[in-house]
Amino acid sequence: MDILTVRKRTTLNRREVNMNKQSAESREGVIVVVDDDPDILLTLKMLLKKHFRRIITESNPYHLPRLLRTHEPDIVLLDMNFHRGDTSAQEGLKWLGKIKELRPDSEVIIITAHGDVELAVRALKAGATDFVEKPWHNDKLVQTVKQTYITAKTGADASDESATASKAPSEDYIAASGEMVEINRKMQKVSSTNADVLILGENGTGKEVAARIIHQKSGRSSAAFVKVDLGAIPDSLFESELFGHKKGAFTDAQQDRIGRMESAQGGTLFLDEIGNLSIPSQAKLLSALQNRAIIPLGSSTPVQVDFRLICATNMPIHEMVNENKFRQDLLYRINTVEIVLPPLRNRIEDIPTLANHFLKTFSEKYDRPELILTAEAIDSLRKHLWPGNIRELRHTIERAVILAESAQLAFPTSSLASNDYLGSPNEQNSLNLERMERKLIVRALKVNDGNVSKAAQDLGLTRGALYRRIEKFQLQ
């Protein structure tokens, strides 16, 4: 038997052990997905099967009674319209009522069109637990389903498994650059206090990681870390989500539900994307923070809350104050200490360490221990401008590990090039804003394999704003 054969068999055996280990891990929960679009059914099945024991998909809602009896699902993901051209959602609301009648214990998450806030409110009042919008962000959808399942099984209002994730050990920021060393030192100092912290930085710079590190190094580390994505909460649901509601506060509010602020009691409340908050919601948040008390919907009794507040945004929040888009008094309240995370292009000294850290992570995940980063590969990574910052670097290393055909990872100009990021040297020196904007958009789309949602996130744009620019530059 030659060495190559032995190596292949060893690798296969190792992968078999890993697969058996993964299959042995207990995945709980039965999910039923009902939608008339076969592509959506397939997508959701592939997305959710990694996290739950069984996923059943169905295109015909009239089969729901049988599915409820046979499978007793923990969660039903329910579309609101089942006939082409129908946007009334009457059929979806009818089936929502039927689900709650036949199996009250099943949680229902509705699937709505983007921006249909009125429908979401009607469905929540009719008994739905939560909603997701088409087109969705995969991570946010999984987070919503997981949170619903955890809440149903434990009664805890967890966010992205934050109550347990907060207890996991965390390393300091990987930092070789002087600026990041100073930021680590600042985070160390602020962690030992209860001071409110505002974290600023572009998309992908690691704002949530910084927030978790501060929590884990604080005296509140044994309590919950509750993340709230304010950009995903409509104004009409703001009070219910953050302050909670009492039984009977609105139609079909069948039980008390604590809000995110109360669920962070004794721990840390992380308000992400706070720059997206509307002025009316800012006023409500300010009042709660000043008094450290909330009044759940349907109640007249204040509830005292005790948490450490950390906020984050990628938006120019100080400029927004000058433009009357963000309340100055709220900014004063949330930024006792302000931490500004630099973009990756300004801390290239950290790229080799970060790249090797991600290589170790993904080599273990995909069972490729033989992979290495050569000096040439590191040089290519250092020359790239990384519009998506650390998130883009992480995705780049993961993709390289998955597709690697030899032990030495390479990043050719066809897949990663500083030259095609801003074009030729003449174009790089150009001050034509439209040309530079077009190049950035092309690069972001390429890095994210054409995924408009991810590209928009990396660019700091809304999906709609990116679509308008794509049309403007005739990129599709």
Give a topology summary.
Blueprint: H1 3-24, E1 30-34, H2 38-48, E2 54-58, H3 64-71, E3 75-79, H4 90-102, E4 107-113, H5 117-125, E5 130-134, H6 138-154, H7 162-165, H8 178-191, E6 197-200, H9 207-216, E7 225-229, H10 238-243, E8 244-245, E9 257-258, H11 260-263, E10 268-272, H12 279-291, E11 293-294, E12 303-304, E13 308-313, H13 317-322, H14 328-334, E14 337-340, H15 351-365, E15 372-373, H16 375-383, H17 389-403, E16 408-409, H18 419-422, H19 425-428, H20 433-447, H21 452-459, H22 463-472
Helix pairs in contact: 3-4, 8-9, 15-17, 20-21, 21-22
What does this structure look like?
With 476 residues, this protein is α/β, with parallel strands linked by helices. The protein contains 22 helices and 16 strands. A five-stranded parallel beta sheet has the order 2-1-3-4-5, with helices on both faces. Helices cover 47% and strands 13% of the residues. The model is unreliable at 1-26, 155-172 and 417-431 (pLDDT under 50). It folds into four domains: 29-137, Response regulator (Rossmann fold, 3-Layer(aba) Sandwich), CATH 3.40.50; 164-342, Rossmann fold (3-Layer(aba) Sandwich), CATH 3.40.50; 344-417, Orthogonal Bundle (Helicase, Ruva Protein, domain 3); 420-476, Arc Repressor Mutant, subunit A (Orthogonal Bundle), CATH 1.10.10. It starts with a helix and ends with a helix.
